């Protein structure tokens, strides 16, 4: 690809250094994605500038007008300390007629609201666990006939925020406690869904109008399973020591029949279209011990760290990290809702 001016957007605390000398592994983990992307874009010959976003868009507006980047590479996951405001940064880019990478504002909004996204998935024929929504600030009233175990999480937060082994509950008392915990700790509504015992599978999807899937990936929970039940807790995803201790990792999914693999990919594409996702996404599934497939949620703009699931799956399909980023840039340049001048 011809050299381009690329403005990489990220949180103001995650602007990466030029090199990793003097940083601990834990410190590096904080800005690993930003560092990997910036370094690879530079290595590919692009002119790269980083912009850390805080609580206003004045600097972004100025750089867009003065530097006129060919594309904004969007790694921002929140704005003004609010994760649901990331869509507004992308809306601003569209108003400025600035091409950008990743998902469009509508797709970000729909996938962020897990209850709304589940309703859209169901209406489009995509199986998802049965669920209930408990609004913050309202009295917790449990309906009769609940089937335990149940799984409790925030309706809007991602990166497994607020998720721990205690998220799986087995009786009404523990359910009420965990709903209250989510309300208090995350400040959001609580989503309660049927807990599916089985394998956790991920499917990377890339494209705008024409979508393609990367190889199916699987989470290996190692010795972190509790009574045969395993979930992607925050520690299981991001705590380096915990992952090493329990042998937690991921790998290409094994032992799936051709028929099941096709169904997983088909459902991943169907889910992306139902939620208006563009750019790149990761669709999360549970395959029950009885062989039934459920979509858990959709992740717009998933982690792009070079050695995490999405990039590894792309590499398995032949798109090394450099190729993956170039593909994402081309999709950003060609996204049809951006009117170029």
Give the tags.
alpha+beta; four-stranded antiparallel beta sheet; Rossmann fold; 341 residues; 11 helices; 13 strands; single chain; globular
Strand content: 15-25%
Pairing-aware structural class of the strands and helices?
Answer: alpha+beta
CATH fold-level label of the domain at 5-102 and 330-334:
Rossmann fold
How many separate helices?
Answer: 11
Number of strands: 13
Distance between the termini: 21 Å
The topology string of helices and strands comes to EHEHEHHHEEEHEEEEHHEHEEHH
Helical coverage, percent range: 25-40%
The value of Rg in angstroms is 20 Å
Q: Can I get a quick summary?
A:
The protein has 341 residues and is α+β, with helices and mostly antiparallel strands. It is built from 11 helices and 13 strands.
Structural account:
With 341 residues, the protein is an alpha+beta fold. Among the domains are: 5-102 and 330-334, Rossmann fold, CATH 3.40.50; 131-194. The chain contains eleven helices and 13 strands. The strands form three sheets. Strands 8, 9, 10, 11, 12 and 13 form a six-stranded antiparallel sheet that branches. It has a four-stranded antiparallel sheet with strand order 4-7-5-6, covered by helices on one side. Strands 2-1-3 form a three-stranded parallel sheet, with helices on both faces. The model has no long low-confidence stretch (mean pLDDT 92).
């Amino acid at each position: 690809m011809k050299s381009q001016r690329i403005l990489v957007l990220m949180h103001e605390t995650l602007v990466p250094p030029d090199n990793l000398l003097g940083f601990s592994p834990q410190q590096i983990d904080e800005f690993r994605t930003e560092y990997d992307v910036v370094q690879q874009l530079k290595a590919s010959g692009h002119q790269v500038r980083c912009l850390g976003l805080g609580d206003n868009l004045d600097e972004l507006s100025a750089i867009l007008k003065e530097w006129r980047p060919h594309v904004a590479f969007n790694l921002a996951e929140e704005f003004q300390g609010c994760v649901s405001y990331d869509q507004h940064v992308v809306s601003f880019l569209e108003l400025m007629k600035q091409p950008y990478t990743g998902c469009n504002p509508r797709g970000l909004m729909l996938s962020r609201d897990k209850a709304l996204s589940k309703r859209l998935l169901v209406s489009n024929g995509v199986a998802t666990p049965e669920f209930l929504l408990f609004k913050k600030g309202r009295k917790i009233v449990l309906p009769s006939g609940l089937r335990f175990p149940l799984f409790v999480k925030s309706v809007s937060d991602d990166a497994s925020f607020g998720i721990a082994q205690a998220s799986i509950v087995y009786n009404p008392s523990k359910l009420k406690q965990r709903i209250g915990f989510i309300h208090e700790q995350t400040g959001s509504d609580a989503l309660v869904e049927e807990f599916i015992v089985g394998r956790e599978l991920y499917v990377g999807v890339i494209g705008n109008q024409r979508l393609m899937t990367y190889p199916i990936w699987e989470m290996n929970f190692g010795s972190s399973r509790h009574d045969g039940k395993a979930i992607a807790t925050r520690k299981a995803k991001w705590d380096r020591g915990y992952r090493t201790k329990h042998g937690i990792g991921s790998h290409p999914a094994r032992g799936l029949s051709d028929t099941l693999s096709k169904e997983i990919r088909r459902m991943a594409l169907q889910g992306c279209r139902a939620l208006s996702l563009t750019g790149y996404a990761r669709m999360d599934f549970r395959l029950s011990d009885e062989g039934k497939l459920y979509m858990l949620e959709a992740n717009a703009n998933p982690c792009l760290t070079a050695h995490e699931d999405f990039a590894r799956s792309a590499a398995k399909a032949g798109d090394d990290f450099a190729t993956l980023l170039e593909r994402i840039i081309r999709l950003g340049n060609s996204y049809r809702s951006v009117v170029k001048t």
